[in-house]
Amino acid sequence: MSxxxxxxxxxxxxxxxxxxxLGLLIIxxxxxxxxxxxxxxxxxxxxxxxxxxxxxxxxxMEVGKWGILQTLADILKLLQKEDIVNKEADKFLFVIGPGVxxxxxxxxxxxxxxxxxxxxxxxxxxxxxxxxxxxLEVVGILAAGWGSNNKWALYGAxxxxxxxxxYEIPAAIAILCGAMMAGTLGMQQIILQxxxxxxxxxxxxxxxPIAWLxxxxxxxxxxxxxxxxxxxxxxxxxxxxxxxxxxxTGMKFAVIFLAEYGSMFMxxxxxxxxxxxxWASPLPNIGALALNDWTSGPLWGAFWIVMKGFFFIxxxxxxxxxxxxxxxxxLMHLCWKVLxxxxxxxxxxxxxxxxxxx
Amino acid sequence: xxxxxxxxxxxxxxxxxxxxxxxxxxxxxxKRKGDAGIDDDNYFRQVDGLVTLQYPREVIPTPEIGRYRxxxxxxxxxxxxxxxxxxxxxxxxxxxxxxxxxxxxxxxxTSDGQQKRFWIPVFDIDLAKCMTCGICSSVCPTDCxxxxxxxxxxxxxxxxxxxxxxxxxxxxxxxxRKKLEEEKKAAPKPKPKPKPKPKPxxxxxxxxxxx
Lengths: 358, 211
Hints:
The complex is a heterodimer. By secondary structure, chain A is mainly α. Chain A has one domain. Chain A is built from 15 helices and two strands. Chain B folds into two domains: 2-45; 70-186, Alpha-Beta Plaits. Chain B has helices spanning 2-27, 82-86, 104-107, 135-139, 170-186, and strands spanning 70-72, 92-98, 118-126, 145-147, 162-164. Chain B contains five helices and five strands; from the N terminus they run αβαβαβαββα. In chain B, the strands form two sheets. Chain B has a three-stranded antiparallel beta sheet, covered by helices on one side. A two-stranded antiparallel ribbon of chain B has the order 1-4. Chain A binds chain B through residues 50, 52-58, 61, 318-319, 321-323, 337-338, and chain B through 4, 8, 15, 18-19, 21-23, 25-26, 28-29, 33, 48-52, 54.
């Protein structure tokens, strides 16, 4: 399996008619197409529908059957909006802010394996790269907030930077627990170790009695890193209008939105790769019913990781429409006094388990 | 230290409780909330399900005793102008022409048998002004002026909010006025109230929307 692991992507990258590396472009375009489709239709539409159902409403119902084309109508509207750059803004920072933000969210997609054969770059430090490159978002947020020359935007950016930098510590330590269990930082290797005939029982979450602790810690921290509720103080509507993107209009606003939904999927994919086996099928082989063998393969792999990602996105939305926003001090209390100590405890316990028990 | 763990425990349990509540609502979104009123015994038990009403396609019927769009049944109107005097916002405009003797039969009677003595070329209700207080309908002697159950009658232009209920066209009104003048000239002594009405032309043709 592992020898033919990247056979498809190798073949694609070798595809270069007339000396042009078209195959490489196609590989890079796969996640781009995916993120665009996902973020445009399922992300925003799903968020609106889920929030509506949780609040006993119907959500978008007018454009298309059950409002399914509402997001496309919104995109068309955003395309027609005037692109306003306010007079006192720092033009350069204001313009590159959304771009950096989007690139930061999108770069991590390079190392996300969408199945045994689909991976942009199978780095041996893939996990490290993923959690490292996401920090680039901070630069984009700060550029957007500072460049706007607006007190709300600046407050939002400052809060966001403080929050993301803080929450990277418990998140990184929790991810490190997963890396310890796998003994590698390569995404494909991590998943391969969670693949087997018993399906979900091979997942790291069920391989280790304390794996649920780093799993929970990473999930909570990932909410904060993507600025999702209940950690959405950077864009707190009730106090900061819209936080760091207060001044943005039209397609720049859409790009910021796209980055948010892109990074939502990215953290969901990372948590499912590290703790829930990524593209590995959760179904076990039961005697003659070789469910696991039947549901494995390149396309099934893409299906499973997308499904797992959507599952976590649903939980993110579920939390968002359940919990009120945390105060700034509560946020920092949760990060430094609760999540970080528990992350260290989980780290030590995982190490003890891996060395002495397993 | 124990308070620290108690806080964490209460945080976890309250989050889970809240998530349970929202998940219940999420799965109940396949149902519609019942339409039991406040006087129904079941009112507080029908808490779950969608409450959104997709308005133009679904409407809650307005109550029968509700006061919405004002309507004048001009066939029963005797032109007494009491509604005009009663209206606090002056939204009713009326113009009457006395019926000449030979026209009394043509003008007819109200549905309860009262002889109508006035032509009403103009009976305009400006529903943009009307505040549906219902005073006009309470003073109406023939109960021809009343509020209907129609609640949605928005318009794109303010002029369209003026509803015309008059029962004569401009030409007919002109003819009736002339006829009245001739009768007055022919009469031996001038009547005490010769119905001056200097306003030359009623401003709009009758017709307008029905109630």
